[in-house]
Amino acid sequence: MRYGTGAWPWYLLALVVIALDQYTKGLASANLEYARPVAVFSWFNLTLHHNSGAAFSFLSDAGGWQRYFFTAIALAVSALLVAWLYRLQRGQWLLALSLALVLGGAIGNLWDRLVLGYVVDFISVHYAGYYFPAFNLADSAITGGAIGLILDSFLGRPAAGSEEE
Asked: What is the dihedral of CA 142, 111, 30, 55, to 10 degrees?
């Protein structure tokens, strides 16, 4: 049996991710000075950055066309994820959770790109002078969802028509 209209809790989770992402980005934008780190721990800073590119600022200096390119990709992927969640078999909770996290993260960053023209990043992790590129809650949700998708692919499901189904 498919989730169909029963997929609404997963869509609600995606909305919660979007809301938390936008809330934290708003707090960061209102309370942090651009590119000025605020140390939280020896390995963790809050540092406001605006990313006009993709992950890890890929294509951030490409001249502006990338905004529309990444917007189109995010819209297409989001539509695909909405349909995929709707068509999932009941009981595929890890896959549904993963898709909902990716969907919420994708839309959270899409909103920034549409409204601001860039994505707000503010989480900075570093160690011994090596800095991981700044990121946000949407990026974290996408990463968590991607890990869940990988785990789900390894767990496998019984073949259609098998007795375990």
From this structure: 40
